[in-house]
From TrEMBL, chain A:
Lineage, highest ranks first: Eukaryota, Fungi, Dikarya, Ascomycota, Pezizomycotina
Keyword line: Actin capping, Actin-binding, Cytoplasm
Subunit comment: Heterodimer of an alpha and a beta subunit.
Name of the protein this chain belongs to: F-actin-capping protein subunit alpha
GO BP annotations, alphabetical order: actin cytoskeleton organization; barbed-end actin filament capping
Family statement drawn from the similarity comment of this UniProt entry: Belongs to the F-actin-capping protein alpha subunit family.
Automatic annotation (TrEMBL), chain B:
Quaternary context: Component of the F-actin capping complex, composed of a heterodimer of an alpha and a beta subunit. Heterodimer of an alpha and a beta subunit.
UniProt-recorded Gene Ontology molecular function terms: actin filament binding
Entry keyword set: Actin capping, Actin-binding, Cytoplasm, Cytoskeleton
Protein name, UniProt field: F-actin-capping protein subunit beta
One of the GO biological process terms: cell morphogenesis
Principal cellular location given in the protein's record: cytoplasm
Record's subcellular location: Cytoplasm, Cytoskeleton, Actin patch
GO CC field: actin cortical patch; F-actin capping protein complex
Described purpose of this protein according to its UniProt entry: F-actin-capping proteins bind in a Ca(2+)-independent manner to the fast growing ends of actin filaments (barbed end) thereby blocking the exchange of subunits at these ends. Unlike other capping proteins (such as gelsolin and severin), these proteins do not sever actin filaments.
Taxonomic source organism: Schizothecium vesticola
Family classification: Belongs to the F-actin-capping protein beta subunit family.
Ranges of Gly residues composition bias in the record: 87-105
Length: 273, 285
């Protein structure tokens, strides 16, 4: 990881939601001695876009489509089931082009379409700004379900991303995946929330409606637990680190601070930890 | 228009995961070695604890009590490992912009006396506010006064709970003495790393740092009042920062998650808002 390219790639992959362009601008300015470096970062951009579920509008469309390893066709092309199209994606500029018709066929085509349809109302009801996609994977043996929601507010110094990925196995009914939340706040500081919630569930009906219902239940339970954990961290670990005021509920009388030690043994001696 | 590479490095550190600042810092120094001194002296990292061999008390390590590979204990005023004879030629790095630690990192007699008093005072402060943890204060001479750093570190006890946390406070100040008043310029950084996990929750990491500055003139009668003034400044800014951290870590972060996904149904929420608006509208008519 000590090569310049390796280091710079790690910076790209660590870019917070909505801040890839800022990170690239910083990298450019720090590596003016090797101007060809950015052109060598193709693999890092590709990894970032596929892992972060980059979204893009196809030319002439207002619908967002998702870039992920599950929708990859190779040669920098990706497909989208909803719009029955495939497109070329430029990983450096995050722009789509060369749209072609892509009609889904194969053993899972019906399940993919019914899951996509069942998921639509759920996503619309709970995500103000999200894209979702369903794709047949692993030689048509399973389907991948992706939901990604972004909210960027750089003027207020915060950005956030929610990513859900589920793999459904029609032969066993297993629904496995993860939900990841990434929030960055950077006014006079740098604060980052990163979560990872593994999901192991099953959908006995094996239908698109059943899958959407299970995802809805899982995500509701997760977000409620996440909200509770903010409270318990605030009341627990945070409170235990530093008090808001001393036990006396009064600020220190600094003119008399030397007498605190003489007057009462407050245990500031040698036997800590 | 060209941007100073140093500013780009700081911007990058403000964006990349704050939990791994040390790693990012090393990487930046590798690709931009010219920035090494500037970055090391301006980027705050979590503090390391060491036990003083002479007194058995814990103290905190930072650039301001460092001389080469040795660190000075505020309790004994001794370096560990001890400096070579003639070690006063040492200094930090290659004489890079650290006035305090440069001259063998030992303050003059008057300033060391204040440093001893400040360590006693902030030991009281630490116990009252942190009920544990470690504190250290280091002073150094300036041409028109003195400067110093107040350090506090507390880790939440492990075991029992699934949650853990570490708090690091770094308060750097310069005191310019102007007769019966003194001007204090204070830059305070708190590094707060929290993590928790559970079966339903999975893993959650909430880490970061925030910085605030204050500039204030305060009356000075004697050297004791310097300690009291610095104490009040640090106490006030830590209270403000604690409240700010609470707001950002537990309020703002939760709000942003709520902006990404709504627990309740969005259309129902919209219907309720519409009904409310109609109700208010009809009452105003």
């Amino acid at each position: 990881m000590s090569s310049t390219k390796g280091i710079v790639s790690s910076f790209v992959e660590g870019a917070p939601p909505g801040e890839l362009a800022d990170v690239i601008a910083d990298i450019k300015n720090l590596t003016t001695n090797s101007p060809s470096l950015l052109r060598e970062l193709g693999p890092a951009f590709e990894k970032y876009n596929e892992e972060q579920f980059a979204t893009v509008k196809l030319p002439g469309s207002s619908q967002l489509v998702i870039v992920s390893e599950h929708s990859a066709l190779g040669d920098g092309r990706y497909f989208d089931v909803e719009s029955s199209s495939s497109f070329a994606f430029d990983h450096a500029t995050q722009k789509a082009s060369a749209v072609q018709s892509h009609v889904l066929e194969g053993a899972q085509a019906d399940l993919v379409k019914s899951t996509l349809k069942a998921l639509g109302p759920y996503v619309k009801e709970h995500y103000p700004n999200a894209a979702h996609g369903v794709y047949p994977i692993e030689n048509d043996s399973r389907i991948a379900i992706v939901i990604v929601a972004n909210k960027y507010s750089p003027n207020n110094f915060w950005n956030g991303r929610w990513r859900s990925l589920y793999i459904f196995d029609p032969s066993s009914g297993a629904l496995e995946g993860s939900v990841k939340v990434d929030v960055h706040y950077y006014e006079d500081g740098n604060v980052r929330l990163l979560t990872n919630k593994p999901v192991n569930a099953s959908v006995s009906s094996g239908t698109g409606a059943g899958i959407a219902k299970e995802i809805s239940a899982q995500e509701k339970r997760y977000q409620e637990e996440l909200n509770r954990s903010f409270t318990s961290l605030s009341e627990g670990a945070f409170k235990g680190l530093r008090r808001q005021l001393p036990v006396t509920r009064q600020k220190i009388e600094w003119d008399k601070v030397a007498s605190y030690r003489l007057g009462q043994d407050i245990g500031g001696g040698s036997s800590r930890r | 228009m060209s941007v100073d590479p140093f500013d780009s490095a700081l911007d990058l550190l403000r964006r990349l995961n704050p939990k791994h600042t040390a790693e990012h810092l090393n990487n930046l120094i590798t690709i931009a070695p010219d920035l090494t001194e500037d970055l090391l002296s301006s980027v705050d990292q979590p503090l390391t604890v060491r036990r003083c061999k002479q007194t058995g008390r814990d103290y905190l390590l930072c650039d301001y009590n460092r001389d080469g590979d040795s660190y000075r204990s505020p309790w004994s005023n001794q370096f560990d490992p001890p400096l070579d004879e003639g070690g006063s030629l040492g200094g930090v790095g290659s004489g890079g912009g650290n006035e305090g630690a440069g001259e063998g990192a030992v303050p003059g007699e008057r300033v060391r006396k204040m440093e001893i008093k400040a360590n006693e005072a902030f030991d009281v402060y630490r116990e009252l506010y942190y009920e544990g943890g470690v504190s250290s204060v280091y002073f150094w001479n300036l041409d028109d006064g003195f400067a110093g750093v107040v350090l506090l570190k507390k880790a939440s006890p492990k075991g029992g709970s699934n949650s853990e946390g570490v708090w690091d406070s770094i308060h750097v100040f310069e005191a310019s003495e102007r007769g019966r008043t003194s001007n204090y310029r204070l830059t305070s950084t708190v590094i707060l790393n929290l993590a928790t996990k559970g079966a339903t929750l999975g893993e959650l990491d909430l880490s970061g740092n925030m910085t605030r500055q204050v500039d204030m003139d305060m009356p000075v009668d004697n050297d004791e009042s310097h300690i009291a003034n610095i104490g009040r400044l640090v106490e006030d800014i830590e209270l403000k920062m604690r409240n700010l951290l609470q707001e950002v870590y537990f309020g703002k972060a939760k709000d942003v998650v709520g902006n990404l996904r709504s627990v309740g149904s969005l259309s129902e929420g919209q219907r309720e808002r519409d009904t409310q608006r109609e109700l208010i509208g009809s009452m105003q008519r």
